[in-house]
Specification:
The chain has 143 residues and is an alpha+beta fold. It has 2 helices and 7 strands, in the order ββαββββαβ.
């Protein structure tokens, strides 16, 4: 399967931007029963997202479902090795998703709490940030 990447962009290269602050949108579990939440800001690459998705698929049963709540739409650029300073910004080499503190990265359903904790632990090994398991809040504030 090909890695995640946008089909088309208005500009080839982006500014680096800021990763500070908390996530406003996407900080609650809304699709599945469980979610994996970021506790630190980071750039999550397309390869890391795919590695997490693979781990989740392998650990879940057939009737389970996964939602990817982040998408790598920011180009990462790099200058070639042994290149002198200057002469502009480097060429795009890959894609990443900007993740802020509190963002739900993945959601899933079809497993019990113990299995969800195990999946969260295995997924956290593939990511460069600390994560935690979140449960979906039901009506009346109960989990």
């Amino acid at each position: 399967m090909a890695l995640l990447a946008p089909k088309q962009r208005k500009f080839r290269k982006d500014h680096r931007g800021r990763r500070t602050g908390k996530a406003i949108a996407g900080s609650e579990v809304v699709f599945g029963d469980f979610g994996i939440q970021a506790l630190e800001p980071a750039w999550i690459t397309a390869q890391q997202i795919e590695a997490c998705r693979t781990v989740m698929v392998r650990e879940m049963e057939k009737n389970s479902k996964i939602w990817l709540r982040i998408f790598p739409d920011k180009p990462i650029t790099k200058k070639p090795a042994e290149t002198r300073m200057g002469k502009g910004k480097g060429d795009p080499i890959g894609w990443c998703a900007v993740v802020r503190t509190g963002r739900i990265l993945f959601e899933f359903t079809g497993v019990d709490r113990a299995k969800a904790e195990e999946i969260c632990r295995l997924v956290s090994y593939k990511l460069p940030i600390k994560t935690r398991l979140r449960e979906r809040l039901r009506l009346g504030g109960e989990r």
